[in-house]
Amino acid sequence: MALVTYGPIVSNARKKIGGIVATKGHAGNFLRSKVAPIQPRTTAQRNVRANFTALAKTWQTLGALAIASFNALAASVKKKDRLGNSVTSTGFQLFMSLSRNLLSVPSYAPLTTAPASLVATSPGTLAAVAGPGGTQVLGAVTVTGPNAVYAITSYAGPPPEVGQTITIAAYATGGNNVTGKITAIAAAFASLTLATTTQVTEALGTGTGTAALAMQITPTTYPATGEVALVFAAAGISAGRSFVGKAYRLIQVFGIIATPPAIPYDITANYLAKFGTPSVGKAIPILVKHVNGTSGAAGIPTAALPLFT
């Protein structure tokens, strides 16, 4: 790998020429030998390629008017290339980009003509938590009802987090077990509210609550009506790193097309199924993107790197 300083004749370069690739990293511009990409030929990779082929064949079946509509829309849309220059896509490239976005939308309708607009919202700043769960020592006040408020006298292990499912067990009075999702936590963890499904009555006592491992995301803006939120993630990386590159994988889709729910996105089960349990102290790469369920237009994505603590 050779570092490069560009001059007045060649001011910048990207991509490859011959067997040499021009690129840029944290250390500046450099040249490297082109390396053939790894072909793991996983089921997911084969599915992506099959979908790409199917969409390309669909493009060939569109009529002249439909193709002209995509060409016209593509010519009106400017985007930045790797050097920051404004460029336009072809109608085929635009069709493929929008259609590939729609493949992730439940019950989508394939595009047969160019959409009227390419508007989609952005999730904005993400509040993300990733914790292995643990044991809290809890105290309870006397409460009755399906939404029980429990006072916390102290806790050992990670603090409780909204959205976690917790089981409170072994009370002095009756020994009842109570399981529910935490819907609210008071300042300084003075109390928490559980969305329990049964009537609860507990006298003052001390119990042990076990919070399940949880990975959750709360965006600043939820999808608009007609949009979905695509959540991408990657295996844990060392704390302090920020570059994720192409390691993101789509793991979950949130939002019902008619009425997207405004609740934290719980990706725990899907993340563990894809990447396994990360080591404590690792940063968890997460990226959220909104996609319009009719046009396939995507908003500006937002990323977060919560520590698994």
Account of the 3D structure:
The protein has 309 residues and is of the alpha+beta class. The protein has four helices and 21 strands. It folds into four domains: 2-33, no CATH class; 43-102, no CATH class; 133-212, Thrombin, subunit H (Beta Barrel), CATH 2.40.10.170; 216-304, no CATH class. Helices cover 17% and strands 32% of the residues. The strands form six sheets. Strands 8-15-11-12-13-10 form a six-stranded antiparallel beta sheet, with no helix packed on it. Strands 1-4-3-2 form a four-stranded antiparallel beta sheet, with no helix packed on it. The chain has a four-stranded antiparallel beta sheet with strand order 18-17-20-21. Helix 1 (43-61) packs across helix 3 (91-102) and helix 2 (64-76) packs across helix 3. The protein starts with a strand and ends in a 5-residue tail after the last strand. Mean pLDDT is 79; it is low at 140-144.
